[in-house]
Design brief:
Order of helices and strands: HHHEEHE
Largest sheet: 3 strands, mixed
Number of domains: 2
Distance between the termini: 93 Å
Shape: elongated
CATH topology of the largest domain: Alpha-Beta Plaits
CATH class of the largest domain: Alpha Beta
Number of helices: 4
Length: 132
């Protein structure tokens, strides 16, 4: 039986290490989506959502829908848009009823029903009560 000497093991180990490092470097150089591509796509999503909200007068429609349901919106609505999939809306209302949790769920559903019907998708809705 032939015995492998220490030099052979060291050479084999070094070659194996070099191959692993090359594979890692080459895989990181493969064309993928850059940070700039992701940023530009996010900016484009924000522009699309914003223009659709303006065209459809989403804020006015939402305020009218809330008033029709007996809520008292102050007209203050804040939007945060990260992408088409991740959007948030904060609605300021006067005097919520005693069951605030139920009202928030109902307003979330009402908002997302309206936004989905005009092609905006869904929002994470936060309700803020104006006590003044």
């Amino acid at each position: 039986m032939r015995r492998i000497n220490n030099k052979g093991i060291l050479v084999f180990g070094f070659l194996f290490l070099v191959i692993v490092v090359l594979v890692i470097i080459l895989s990181s150089l493969s064309p993928g989506e850059s940070d700039q591509d992701v940023y530009l796509r996010s900016v484009k999503d924000v522009e699309v959502v914003t223009s659709k909200m303006t065209e459809t007068e989403f804020q006015s429609q939402l305020i009218t829908a809330l008033k029709n349901e007996g809520y008292k919106p102050t007209g203050s609505i804040a939007f945060t848009i990260f992408s088409m999939e991740k959007k948030e809306i904060t609605i300021v209302l006067h005097g919520l009823d005693s069951n605030e949790g139920k009202a928030e769920t109902y307003i979330q559903d009402l908002t997302n029903e309206l936004s989905t019907s005009i092609g905006l998708g869904t929002f994470k809705v936060t309700i803020v009560e104006d006590n003044e």
